[in-house]
Amino acid sequence: MYTAAFHYHKAKSVAEAEQLFAANGDAKYLAGGQTLIPVMKQRLAAPSELIDIGGLPELSYIKHQGNIVTIGAGTCHAVVANSTDVKSAIPALAGLAGGIGDPAVRARGTIGGSIANNDPAADYPAAVLALNAHVRTTKRLIDGDAFFTGMFSTALEEGEIVTEILFPVPQKAGYIKFRNLASRFALTGVFVAKFATGVRIAVTGAGSCVFRVPEMEAALTKNFAPEAVANISVSPDGLNSDIHASAEYRAHLVTVMAKRAVAAALA
Hints:
Blueprint lengths: L6 E4 L3 H10 L3 E4 L5 H6 L7 E4 L9 E4 L2 E5 L4 H6 L1 H6 L1 H8 L4 H6 L2 H7 L6 H7 L3 E4 L3 E3 H4 E3 L2 E2 L7 E7 L3 E8 L6 E10 L2 E7 L6 E2 L1 H9 L24 H20 L1
């Protein structure tokens, strides 16, 4: 591995991790390492200190109480995918977790690391936004609508650690993505969630950051059926365009994946 020299610290608690971060000006937290390690290997990041918070019991858990499923930030994707609590309360969320990467990635990657990194094509941000989740940190509780602020950018402040995500249980939900066959990231993925108060839709992979589609939400609130969004298109302006798919193709996929996500939710 070609990286600059760094010091490694294995934190014994979240509190100790914060202390280590405060004492080291150029530090990074390491959870599952599925993004940070490859970035360091590519020499795109060179922190002088790595503070390992992976495997902390206080960050790895799943609780289903009332109408909320709470998942500790250190919980790996495989645990979310196989959780009986998640499968029974929000099966679409379990399915999403089971479709991330490959078995090795799912065994190491964490939900907190995924949303803190906020890759434009990551799956979990769509679930956080569509399910109207809240993100608890070492400092505060952040509304999901305010958490994702741009490409690889979130509302997290320097040194702030995600500790858990609180997901409201919907009446119905579905998540479908058109995946890049090599990386299994979403070229375009759509998460739809139906609540008593209305429907929320979140799109990942298509733009620089996860986003909602109000016109589709309004249509599905009136009629929760695939045909309700069949004629609603998303503008390609500002969407991602690369060697994998053009902005126009991704815009087309938003409608296609939305229809399939609704069908999945009804199934």
